Amino acid sequence: MRIKKTCVYPVIIFLCLFFIFPVILLSQEPTAIKILDDKVRTYLENRRGTWRELNVPASDGKILYDLIIKNNYKKALEIGTSTGHSGIWIAWALSKTGGKLITIEIDAERYREALANFKEAGLANYIDARLADAHNLVKELQGPFDFVFCDADKEWYKNYFIDVYPKLEVGGCYTAHNVSARRGMGRQTEQFYNYLKRLSYVETAVNDSGGGISISYKRPIK
Ligand SMILES: C[S@@+](CC[C@H](N)C(=O)[O-])C[C@H]1O[C@@H](n2cnc3c(N)ncnc32)[C@H](O)[C@@H]1O
């Protein structure tokens, strides 16, 4: 029995569209994720112990990474990029949730170094790095955000929080570095922690395992 060519072509097109192409696409996606993961992991391993510009320790970077993955956050803001160590951990998590990070640095040299580091780590596409005074830019940014990491000038922590809070989504998380439940962590951040604890509309915990990170979740309005 001879099969007509005109009958075979639609079958081939059907198979390609619904079976072969999807299988190819699905089998490539995990490969792309794995390639990026390997690149970032290798970069961070090679850079271990070399971060000198007031950067967070790797253990604190991992805390930020885990928070983003666990809550599937996508719209992140970092205040205080420095040379990008925490930004790399945040952006690495966002590369998995499909999100993006805006990060702000006032120092031009650190900003340039951060850009180079983001590129070398393979994460530049997930980061919108701004050279600016965060005192002004944080007010101007539209948001909304669902994850914030504050790690710039400590005396301004409360002002940053007040400016960002209205742009933080309910369920979103505001974290700040060098904030600890322990005493003697510095007057500025201790004041900020006491301020957070008094607020009824956020739920704050502190992770003291590294440099101290306050973790405040925005509660729904009752
Ligand atoms: C503790 S470091 C940030 C470290 C960074 N998060 C990391 O772990 O890689 C603080 C940074 O905030 C920057 N900074 C201080 N005041 C600022 C401001 N008003 N606007 C933007 N950046 C500021 C400093 O230049 C410094 O690089």
Structure summary:
This protein is of the alpha/beta class and 222 residues long.
Describe how the helices and strands are arranged.
Blueprint: H1 5-47, H2 58-71, E1 75-79, H3 85-97, E2 100-105, H4 108-121, E3 127-131, H5 134-140, E4 145-150, H6 157-164, E5 168-177, H7 187-198, E6 202-207, E7 213-218
Parallel strand pairs: 1-2, 1-4, 2-3, 4-5
Antiparallel strand pairs: 5-7, 6-7
Helix pairs in contact: 2-3, 5-6
S-adenosylmethionine (SAM) binds at residues 54-56, 80-86, 104-107, 110, 133-135, 151-153.
Task: Provide a descriptive summary of the structure in words.
It is a single chain. With 222 residues, the chain is an alpha/beta fold. It has two domains: 1-48; 58-218, 3-Layer(aba) Sandwich (Rossmann fold), CATH 3.40.50. The chain contains seven helices and seven strands, in the order ααβαβαβαβαβαββ. The protein has helices at 5-47, 58-71, 85-97, 108-121, 134-140, 157-164, 187-198; strands spanning 75-79, 100-105, 127-131, 145-150, 168-177, 202-207, 213-218. The chain has a seven-stranded mixed beta sheet, with helices on both faces. α3 links the parallel β1 and β2. S-adenosylmethionine (SAM) binds at residues 54-56, 80-86, 104-107, 110, 133-135, 151-153.
